[in-house]
Amino acid sequence: MTDAERISNRPSGRMNGGRALAEMLRLAGVGPMFGMGGFQLLPFYDALAQLGMRHFLINDERCGAFAAEAYARVTNRPGVCDGTLGPGATNLVTGLIEALNAGTPMIALAGDTNRAHSWKNMTQECRQAEILRPAVKELIRVELTSRVPELLRRAFAVATSGRPGPVLLDVPEDVCHGEHDFAAEDFSIDPTTLSAPARRIRPDRADIARAAALIGRANRPLILVGGGIHLSAGYGALLAFAEAQSIPIAHTMSGKGGVACTHPLSTGLFGRYSRIANELIEASDCLLVVGCKLGEIATKRYALPPENIPLIHLDILAEEIGRCRPAPVALWGDARAGLEDLAEALADDGRRARAARAEYVGEIPVRMATWRGEAAPRLDSSERPIHMARLCRELNSALPADSILVADGGFAGHWTGLLYDTKSPGRRFIPDRGLASIGYGLPGGIGAALAAPQTPVVAITGDGGFNMTLGEIETARRAGIGLTIVVVNNAASGYVKALQHAMFRGRYQSSDLVEMDYAAIARAMGCAGIRVEDPERLGAALHEGLAERSRPTILDIVVTRDPARMLPAVDNRTVEIRQGDRVA
Ligand SMILES: Cc1ncc(C[n+]2csc(CCOP(=O)(O)OP(=O)(O)O)c2C)c(N)n1
Ligand SMILES: [Mg+2]
Hints:
It contains 24 helices and 20 strands.
C-alpha cells in the first residue's frame, strides 16, 4: 500500500487517545515498534492488537530505543518506541540521545501520570519531562485527547525536517484512556514528513560559487563525509561529483558507505584511526566537509585538519558549521542538494580537472595497496587468540554487498570502522557514534534485521556491551530473526584495559570480565551458538550464521587478551603531543 492510499483510509467516531495514537501511526505506515507496557499506555497497546500492528516487547526500554533507532537508520523513516511512566521513560534516555546526536528520526511515546493525581507520589512518578527534554529534538506534552492526531503530525514533521531527530510525546494516562469523538478529517498526515529528509534546502548560490572557485583551483582536494550523507541519501550526488571532478573521499565511522569502500576514490576512514586518509588530509589544499560535525574522533581530538588548509563545510545545521574548525566557506543546506549544486557549478571544468588530477587520484589505489601490504600480517594473521584484523578480513570476505553490519561502541566499532569494507554505497555499516554507548550492537541488530528482513544482518559487539543487553537475545529469538551476532570475546572491558595499559603501566582496575562461553548461553536461550577459537573456522562460522534465517546465531569469537595489542593503532589520547610531533 502506498503512503497516499494508507493515509486516505481514515477512521472516525468515538475512541480513546491510545486508539487515536495507533490510528495515526498506522496512517504513517510505521514499521515494527519496540516497548514495554505499563498501565498508562495500555489503550494504545490494545489498539495495536486490534489493528494488527507490529509491536515487540523489549526487555529494556533503552534497547527498544536502540532498536527503533537502527530501524530508522536503515529505512530513513522514523523508528517508534515507547516506555511507561517513570522508569520506562527514563530508560529511553540513552537511545534517544543516540538519535539526537546522530540526527536519526524517531518518535517515542512515554506514558505519564493521570493528571487528577499528579504530584501525589504516584507509583513510578518522577519529573520525566524534565529528564527527557534535553534528550530529544522536541518534547511534546499531549494535554487533550482531541489533539492526539494533530500533535503526532507535529512529531513527524519535527522528526524528519531540517536535521532529523527524536521527538518524544509525553502522554498523561487520562489523555490515553480518555475518549473523544473524532471526525475523519482529524486523521491526516503530510506524506512528505514520513521519511527523512522531509524537505531539502539548497545552499546559497553565492556560497556555492565561492566553494566552486576554491575547489576549481585545488590540486589535491579531498571530500570528508560524515553521517549526514546517509541522512540525505546523497550517494548518487557524491559519487557523480567526485568522479566528475576526480576528488577522493574519506569518511568518518558514521559516513562509511557514503561511497563504497571498495571504490578507487575511497581513501577509507579518517580521524583517530586511519589507513591513508589522514596523510591525504595533511597533504590536501582544499577540504570539502559534507554532513560531518568534525568532532573529537574525526579530528583526532582536534589535531586535524591543519588550520592552513582551506575548508568548505556543507551541513544542514547552520550552527554546526565552524563549531570545531573555522570554515572559510559555509554551505548551509542538504548534502545531496549541495553536492548537486557544486557539480553543476563546476560542470564545464570537469575535463580539465580530471586531467589535472589524474596523477593525484592515481595515487589512491597505489597507497591503499601499500597500506594493505603493511597490514597483511595482521589481516592474514593465524594467531590464537584470534587477531581483530583477521576477524575484520573474514567479515569482508563473508558478507555480501547488500549486507548490513551493526557495530557496537567498544573495539567492535573502531576495528570495523577502520578495516571493514562496504562493497556498495548506502547505510550498510551502522555504528552508534551519536553517543557511542556500549550495548547498541544486539538491539541495533534487531532493529536493522526487522527493517531489512531479506538482507543479511550481522551485529558485532564487545563482550561487555553484550553483557549489558543479553536479555534481548530473548527478544531476537521471539521475533524469529536470522540475525548473526559476533561477540568479540576478550574477557575485558577492552578499550578501558588497553588505555590503562598505555597510560597507567598496566595497573588495571575494573576492566576484566570473567571468561564466559557466549555460545553456550545462546544455545541455552534457544539460539544457535558457535564458539570460534581457530581463525581458520571464522569463515565457515559466519556462513553458518548468515544461512540461519529464523533464529539468531551467536558467534563467540575468542580474540586477543593482550591489552598491549588491543588497539587498532596508537590512540592519540594516550600520547603527550608536543608541537611538531606526529602521532599514529
Ligand atoms: C554505556 C557506556 N559505558 C561506558 C563506556 C566507555 N567504554 C568505551 S569502550 C568500553 C569497553 C567496552 O567493553 P566491551 O564491550 O567488551 O568492548 P571491547 O572494548 O572489550 O571490545 C567502555 C566501558 C561506554 N562507551 N558506554
Ligand atoms: Mg570486551
